[in-house]
Amino acid sequence: QPLPPALLDALLLDFLASHAGLSTRARLRIGFDHFLRRPALASGRAGWRRYPVRLTATRIREAFVLDLGFDIVYSSTCPASTALARQLVAADFARAFPADAPLDRAAALRWLEGEQGMRATPHSQRSTAAIEVRLVAGGDELPLAALIDAAESALGTPVQAAVKRIDEQAFARANGDNPMFCEDAARRLHGWLEREPRVRAFRIRVAHHESLHAHDAIAASSCGLD
Q1: E strands, the chain, where?
Q2: CA-to-CA distance for 203 and 212, rounded, in angstroms?
């Protein structure tokens, strides 16, 4: 059956009732993989994405608290690397088409489409955002899918499930339009969660698993959760 907050609270109350006089606190932790069907960016295909989920329900006397955690995997393109790559491409173009020579548009397009037109590319990496939220009391259901959708929308470049060539090209475009440091990703998520009406406290940790460095780049943020 569905897993609404009321069912979790009823279970915790049963725990406490069975230990009347012995305990005033009960907690239930559940971990599972949640699957969502995701459309491709351009081809019309679709595939399944896996999201690790952590659910913690707590009752302390009259108070019921429900915490929901999930992970988002996304792509992050380095803004500094993007700027450096653009400089190199511009310098190569200037050498291939000097200012004192007439510009042949067809030749310029062939140059841009060839290997020499993109001899420098910015580095990007698979990245992970671990999001923990404390839900507003009184909800009738777990807003898991809605929160995952909102988090991916805030980041802009979630990894894909179904990918044909046209989808990969669209993904390359999205990354090019959306460079970000780990701090940028944390700020985007923080800004979204501050406005999210279903959340009253949260904690964020993002990790960019660097392709340039031998270590991850980490940023964290929180509001109301230690």
Answers
A1: 25-39, 46-60, 63-77, 124-135, 199-208, 217-223
A2: 27
Write down the pLDDT at residue 225. 86
CB distance 221 to 189 below 8 Å: yes
**Residue 3 to residue 32: CA distance in whole angstroms:** 13
Under 8 Å between Cβ of 189 and 196:
no
Query: Residues of the chain whose pLDDT is less than 50?
Result: none
Q: In what order do the strands lie in the sheet with 199-208?
A: 25-39, 46-60, 63-77, 124-135, 199-208, 217-223
**What does the pLDDT read at residue 204?**
98
Task: Give residue 82's identity as a one-letter amino acid code.
Answer: T
Q: Label residue 156 left, alpha or beta by phi (over 0 means left) and psi (-120 to 50 means alpha).
A: left
Q: How far apart are CA 153 and CA 83, in angstroms?
A: 24
As given in the structure block, the two tokens for residue 124 are 């990007």
The amino acid at 122: P
pLDDT at 118: 86
Helix ranges restricted to H, 24-164: 79-96, 105-113, 144-155
What is the structure's pLDDT at 73? 98
Compute the half-sphere exposure of residue 93: CA atoms within 13 Å on the CB side of its CA. Answer: 20
pLDDT at 13: 95
Tokens in use for 76? Answer: 């992050």
13: which 2 tokens?
Answer: 């109350």
How big is the chain by its Cα radius of gyration, in Å? 24
Give the closest residue to 80 by CA, choosing from 212, 186, 221, 205: 212
* pTM score: 0.92
